[in-house]
Amino acid sequence: MRYALIGCGRVAVNHVIAARNNRLDFVAMCDKVPEAMDNLMIKRGFDEETTVKKYTDYKEMIDKEKPELVSIATEICSHAEIALYCIDRGINVIIEKPMTMSVSDAQKIIDLAEERGVKVAACHQNRFNIAVQKLRQAVDEHRFGKISHGSVNVRWSRGKNYYNQASWRGTWAQEGGALLNQCIHGIDLLCWMMDEDIVEVYGQTRQQLHDYLEIEDVGMAVVSFGNGAIGTIEGTTNVYPENLEESLYIFGEKGTVKLGGKSANTIDIWHFADVREADEDIHGLQEPASNVYGNGHTRLFADMIDAIQNDRKPYVDAVAGKKAVEVVLAIYKSAAEGKPVRLPLGDCAATDFADSFVKK
């Protein structure tokens, strides 16, 4: 399967590894900055004889190379434009999180993909973590009984060195803040495990320690699900001195589980009323991860390839990508208005909140 990568920044290395692990025919890569492509090729050990072609214009690359699958790892504000261009030409796409910066762009991707008959995967790769898969299996088997509530906590560290990597970081027009960029993985997991859509959000956001940016560096919310369960969300980039955790708790009448580690990659608590022999091995499970991205990209790519070949929906489809974006935007809207917000939102975009932290 002919594969191309658009965007060669911080997360792109995970896409290259995933493409290679799945033996895709890696035909081309694209970035507006040629040095970014050169650095990525050096980092991944491409030799001088490599046949991966390099482009600075993604439209030229698409039209000349005609890939069957493209992954998009550019600045967030360009995800929708690039995805829609690819989809309109019948090309399947994997879109890094967040899928878009607005509800309307997410819906355009969903609608056009259905019209053109192509597959779209939102890159929420942590769904493929071993710990996360074990938890999802317990949810599917109804081991929790009635679910009471859940909580996700993304407590990471991002300083000037991180934001100086690209001019678009820390802006409302191009990235959004801690919730939209960093915490969205955890939000996706919470929504997925609770097995119901969020119907109401009450949120608060602040810019506490990053006054050189436009966006929030901490956000918290209480959310209500359609089945009556409630949840809490915490996302921050203010942890000193380094990333602390991405933890997920699920509480039910017959079970309690906590996933922990830097990217929800460990099982710290695993208690169920229906004790099973396999539970002894599950409790304390740890999946090594070299960074906060975890190991899920390879599995997400494998699932996408299978979805294309067998004409089925990807495990994490564009609808899931839209839901996660909509929850974040609802938190922003609630914080801006100072009151609870009902979902679905209608149209809403990160740029709607550009004056949230205007300096007085």
Structure keywords:
alpha/beta, Rossmann fold, Dihydrodipicolinate Reductase, domain 2, 14 strands
Please provide a written account of the structure:
This protein is an alpha/beta fold and 360 residues long. It folds into 2 domains: 2-126 and 297-316, NAD(P)-binding Rossmann-like Domain (Rossmann fold, 3-Layer(aba) Sandwich); 127-292 and 323-353, Dihydrodipicolinate Reductase, domain 2 (2-Layer Sandwich). Helices cover 34% and strands 23% of the residues. The protein has 12 helices and 14 strands. It has helices at residues 12-21, 34-43, 58-65, 79-88, 103-116, 130-140, 160-163, 178-182, 184-194, 279-282, 296-310, 318-337, and strands at 2-6, 25-30, 53-55, 69-72, 92-96, 120-123, 147-155, 198-206, 218-225, 230-236, 245-252, 255-260, 266-272, 341-342. Strands 13-12-11-7-10-9-8-14 form an 8-stranded mixed sheet. The relative contact order is 0.16.
Q: What's the quick description here?
A:
The protein is of the alpha/beta class and 360 residues long. Helix content is 34%, strand content 23%.
How is the secondary structure organized here?
Layout: E1 2-6, H1 12-21, E2 25-30, H2 34-43, E3 53-55, H3 58-65, E4 69-72, H4 79-88, E5 92-96, H5 103-116, E6 120-123, H6 130-140, E7 147-155, H7 160-163, H8 178-182, H9 184-194, E8 198-206, E9 218-225, E10 230-236, E11 245-252, E12 255-260, E13 266-272, H10 279-282, H11 296-310, H12 318-337, E14 341-342
Parallel strand pairs: 1-2, 1-4, 2-3, 4-5, 5-6, 7-10
Antiparallel strand pairs: 7-11, 8-9, 8-14, 9-10, 11-12, 12-13
Helix pairs in contact: 1-11, 4-5, 5-12, 6-9, 9-12
